[in-house]
Specification:
Layout: E1 10-16, H1 26-36, E2 45-52, E3 62-67, H2 72-82, E4 89-97, E5 112-114, E6 123-131, H3 134-143, H4 153-167, H5 175-184, E7 189-197, E8 202-206, E9 215-218, E10 222-226, H6 229-236, E11 244-245, E12 250-254, E13 260-264, H7 277-282, H8 288-300, H9 302-309, E14 316-320, H10 326-339, E15 346-347, E16 351-353, H11 364-371, E17 375-377, E18 388-393, H12 400-411, E19 417-422, H13 444-453, H14 457-465, H15 474-478, H16 482-493, E20 501-506, H17 509-515, H18 523-526, H19 532-546
Parallel strand pairs: 14-15, 14-18, 18-19, 19-20
Antiparallel strand pairs: 1-4, 1-10, 2-3, 2-4, 5-6, 6-7, 7-8, 8-12, 9-10, 9-11, 12-13, 16-17
């Protein structure tokens, strides 16, 4: 992805069913592997906690380490390796954090801890989640007589579950299930939670719509839970069929004796809407299903790319933006070779992502010049003045890097035309379930809509905002053709000094669903949100745009 897009965090948990048959650090090693194999999902913070079975009075019931340094995962893995291994360690909990709200501090790193005198009410919680109604939960928590010390949704969820644990009736079996049901009953958003109490109960819970990913594996020696299936496969050397998806709206609960059961904690049937960006970009492509789906996304673009390139095959050079578009590019090439006869398509790696530039240059012009060199370029492949250069990206969200770095770099090669193809549809709406794009004005697709509306854009958008429609923008988007919208996006992305003609091709929503049939979460493309809070965020985002406010919408 060319734009920096803060996204999904990762959870990891290993629960030992019985003591390892040999010495060593079985649990710590498995947790470290689960975290390392998901390192792509969080580079702003990391944390781990290890809970001990049957702790003695006077002993700490758990060990914990967190880091928000520039190398958080390495710090935490090092701490796990250096700790004093105890023979009664049983629950291993870890988290990787992407700072969606830009707050890089250990106070925001998971696991969160609620301390209590009773082991059964001491809770440790880590999660991959965002809530649209955190403000309401804060007020509810305050009205209950508590004194909340943070407004972060992670803290609030932890405290809410802990409060329900404290109120759980001893007759309720297990009390963890009852607490989760009541604590999450009014939560609006998306989550995959992993937690444990100091008396030995462990759990993993997923939101009713299945927006966030969650997988588990029940092995002979341990139960493993993670955000991505291949992480469990690697850590426990198992096949994909043995790693199961945690059902939406359910919780996997493991007793202190090691008995695991799945409980329905939602009590209602919700439309299942897994986040499609998991398939397009977030999750690693070594998952067997995701690998094939990304190839299908690339293949689906071939007809539209060839139509837009409008050149003989021998005058087209195909490439991609590294590294997340690489698998989709493989699918594009396979489709090309299967459909084009007589001419072998020319392709290669044109863009090479360079190391991140860090500079203290104060002069703005000099900073812009450095920014243009975030990517390096391969010379000698594109014939100046003759070739059309097709470049595949997994998505075009804000367009800043595309305009300020990638297109100026590609233009140095002297192509006649540049076609930028996105394996995802245009992102037209804000997201509130974890992806850092809650501001409408940042989205190039929305800016293109405002451009197409012309001088009366403000008035038209105000009328739409006042219409009372759940999605006041859908009608405006529908008033323009896909070709008009893509042409306006191309205009917005084209730098003033650009010599080559720039065209943009986007995936269609129908093609996305055909390529990724199990992931219907597409609200950022369609504006069809799975929860009421999503529509509230859209309304707030539109109001903020019209009032020239840059604040977040949730």
């Amino acid at each position: 992805m060319s734009d920096e897009l803060k996204h999904e965090c990762a959870v990891a948990m290993a629960i030992l069913s019985k003591p390892p048959s040999a010495g060593g650090d079985f649990g710590g090693t498995k947790l470290s592997l689960l975290l390392e194999k998901q390192h792509n999902r969080g580079q702003d913070g990391a944390g781990a906690a290890i809970l001990r079975a049957d702790p003695e009075p006077g002993d700490e019931p758990y060990w914990i380490a967190k880091s928000a340094s520039p190398t958080p995962l390495a710090d935490v893995l090092g701490a796990i390796g250096r700790r004093t291994v105890c023979g009664n360690e049983r629950i291993f909990l870890g988290h990787l954090r992407y700072a969606t709200f830009g707050k890089n501090d250990t106070a925001f790193c998971h696991p969160f801890v609620h301390e209590a005198e009773e082991l059964g009410r001491t809770l440790l919680l880590a999660g991959n989640f965002n809530l649209t109604n955190a403000a309401e939960l804060f007020e509810e928590h305050r009205r209950s007589g508590a004194f909340p010390t943070s407004r972060s949704d992670g803290y609030l969820v932890c405290e809410t579950i802990a409060r329900e644990l404290a109120h759980a009736d001893g007759a309720e079996t297990p009390p963890t299930v009852a607490a989760l049901k009541r604590a999450l009953e009014h939560a609006d958003g998306a989550w995959m939670l992993c937690g444990a109490t100091a008396d030995g109960w462990a759990f993993a819970a997923r939101d009713p719509h299945g927006i966030r990913t969650g997988w588990y594996f029940a092995g002979e020696n341990a139960i493993a839970i993670a955000s991505e299936r291949p992480a469990i496969q690697a850590a426990f050397d198992t096949g994909p069929e043995e790693v199961k998806e945690l059902p939406p709206g359910h919780a996997l609960v493991v007793s202190p004796e090691g008995e695991a059961k799945i409980f329905d904690i939602s009590g209602k049937r919700a439309e299942i809407r897994p986040c499609s960006f998991e398939r397009i970009y977030f999750s690693r492509a070594n998952d067997a299903d995701i690998h094939q789906e990304r190839k299908a996304l690339g293949a689906a673009l071939v007809p539209k790319i060839l139509e837009t390139a409008d050149a003989p095959m021998e005058d087209i050079f195909f490439s991609y933006i590294p590294n997340s578009a690489r698998i989709a590019f493989h699918g594009l090439l396979e489709k090309l070779f299967a459909t084009v006869a007589g001419t072998v398509p020319r392709f290669g790696e044109i863009a090479v992502k360079d190391a991140k530039f860090r500079t203290f240059i104060a002069d703005a012009a000099a900073r812009r010049e450095f920014y243009k060199h975030v990517y390096d370029v391969t010379y000698g492949l594109v014939r100046p003045g003759r070739d059309t250069l097709v470049v595949l990206d997994d998505s075009i969200v804000r367009g800043n890097t595309m305009k300020n770095a990638i297109l100026p770099m590609l233009d140095r090669l002297g192509p006649k035309r540049i076609v930028i193809a996105s394996s995802a549809p245009p992102v037209r709406y804000p997201d509130c379930y974890g992806i850092d794009m809650s501001t409408l004005g940042e989205l190039v697709a929305f800016r293109a809509l405002a451009g197409l509306l012309g001088d009366g854009a403000g008035d038209e958008l105000r009328r739409s905002a006042a219409s009372g429609e759940a999605n006041p923008l859908a009608r405006l988007y529908a008033s323009f053709s896909e070709e008009e919208h893509c042409a306006e996006i191309a205009r917005l992305l084209t730098p003033p000094e650009m010599k080559a003609e720039v065209k943009v091709v986007y995936q269609t929503v129908n093609a996305l669903h055909a390529a990724c049939p199990g992931s219907s979460g597409d609200w950022y493309f369609t504006g069809e949100y799975p929860t009421p809070g999503g529509y509230g965020v859209l309304a707030k985002a539109l109001t903020n745009y019209l009032e020239h406010k840059s604040e977040r919408s949730y």
